[in-house]
TrEMBL record:
UniProt name for this protein: Flagellar hook protein FlgE
Compartments where found: Bacterial flagellum basal body
Superkingdom, natural source: Bacteria
Function per UniProt: A flexible structure which links the flagellar filament to the drive apparatus in the basal body.
Domain Flagellar hook protein FlgE/F/G-like D1: 83-125
Gene name of the record: flgE
Alphabetical list of InterPro entries matching this protein: Falgellar_hook_FlgE_sf (IPR037058), Flag_bb_rod_N (IPR001444), Flagellar_FlgE/F/G (IPR020013), Flg_bb/hook_C_dom (IPR010930), FlgE/F/G-like (IPR037925), FlgE_D2 (IPR011491), LlgE_F_G-like_D1 (IPR053967)
Gene3D superfamilies: Flagellar hook protein FlgE
Length: 402
């Protein structure tokens, strides 16, 4: 019996050392969760044993459990590194079509713009509009538009904020001011539009809009009368809508396109003419230059034309019983019956953690504790070996009796 007890102890201690060694080996593995061997005693029982006493016959490893505690976050500065701060796992669509779940956020872009991990799994997420608002709740494999430039956007609105000097008079040259803004046609060609402001009477001004075509000829776009209230604010009710058609520079297939000028924040105060804001909503084509991942998982792509557009939102999933996940290597787990089905969501929703871009989650292995555990396991192994040695000596004594 002592031989069996000692052998079971040796096997259990050996497996415990394997687990400890695995933890130590992965102390620097991103997203790794430490494991521990959990022991269970063994008994030999028989029906109707006297006094209900059962003989202990050794020990076994009941299970190897993982500790899904938060690891430290290390700042890397890489755009494609993402750490989960809190609950949740990244969902990865693997090359064989299966789904794996990981805390390892060391992602890369391939030549097609797909967001991959080191095992070739593609990051799952939700589609969004250009502002980052989710447009569907069925997850998709995320990718970035790296194959070509984003198309140009035709200008529709100019927003202007400026002050016209209330001290100016229509009879003086100082009563005329002007500014210019670039607008974009259907193909992204820049067209300079000039607006001149000439005082007509007290609280009354006229805007003259013009553009310059490709031949350098100034083309009129219209004259518009605007008014101001006695307090110097814009009088929209007594002003003309400032709307005009800009001539596209694409002579072969272009068409005039309407542009509206928003003047609601202009003023007429007794201070010099100054422009504080002059923007428009068009832009030329642009190539992807960089990206930024927000705390809520929205991926913002930045382009060479100065635009930033959302390219999707990273999905997180959680489980009722994370201990039931089965590790499959490569910093990944798969769902099992014990773990339950994955519960999907977005970062920051419900009990899901937030994301930290430019960072990774370190292994949660406590190296000092593991080294102490290793010494303890070694002593246990030696002690079990000693029981076998002692039993062997006893058996030798019996066999040598005459």
């Amino acid at each position: 019996m002592a031989f069996q007890q000692g052998l079971s102890g040796l096997n259990a201690a050996s497996r415990n050392l394997d687990v400890i060694g695995h933890n130590i080996a992965n102390a620097n593995t991103v997203g790794m969760k430490s494991s521990r061997a959990e022991f269970a005693e063994l008994y030999a029982s028989s029906v109707g044993a006297s006094g209900g006493i059962s003989q202990g016959i050794g020990v076994s490893i009941a299970t190897v459990s993982q500790a899904f505690t938060q690891g430290n976050l290390t700042i890397t500065g890489r755009d494609m590194d993402v750490a989960i701060n809190g609950n949740g796992f990244f969902a990865m669509s693997m090359p064989d079509g299966s789904l794996q779940y990981s805390r390892d956020g060391q992602f890369k872009l391939d030549r097609d713009g797909r967001i991959l991990n080191n095992q070739g799994g593609q990051l799952m997420g939700y589609p969004t509009d250009v502002d980052g608002n989710r447009t569907a709740f069925d997850p998709i494999a995320l990718s970035l538009p790296t194959g070509g430039p984003i198309p140009a956007n035709e200008t529709k609105t100019i927003t202007a904020e400026f002050n016209l000097d209330a001290r100016a008079t229509g009879a003086e040259p100082a009563g005329t001011y002007g500014t210019t803004v670039l607008v974009y046609d259907q193909q992204g060609k820049a067209i300079p539009v000039a607006m001149a402001f000439e005082k007509q009477a007290n609280n009354q001004w006229q805007i003259t809009a013009t553009m310059t075509d490709e031949a350098g000829v100034v083309q009129p776009l219209g004259n518009f009368n605007i008014a101001f209230n006695p307090d110097g604010s814009f009088d929209e009710a007594n002003s003309d809508p400032v709307e005009f058609d800009v001539l596209s520079l694409n002579a072969a297939n272009g068409a005039d396109f309407p542009v509206t000028v928003n003047l609601e924040n202009i003023t007429q105060f007794a201070s010099p003419f100054s422009v504080t804001n002059l923007t428009q909503d068009g832009y030329p084509p642009g190539e992807l230059t960089s990206l930024q991942i927000e705390d809520n998982g929205v991926i913002m792509a930045r382009y060479s034309n100065g635009e930033s557009q959302a390219a999707g939102q990273i999905q997180l999933v959680n489980f009722r019983n994370a201990q039931g996940l089965a590790p499959v290597g490569g910093n990944g787990w798969v769902a099992t019956f014990a773990s339950g089905a994955p519960i999907p969501g977005a970062p920051g929703e419900g009990n899901m953690g937030m994301l930290k871009a430019g960072a990774v989650e370190d292994s949660n292995v406590d190296l000092t504790a593991e080294l102490v555990n290793m010494m303890t396991a070694q002593r246990a192994y030696q002690a079990n070996a000693q029981t076998i040695k002692t039993q062997d000596q006893i058996m030798s004594t019996l066999l040598n009796m005459r």
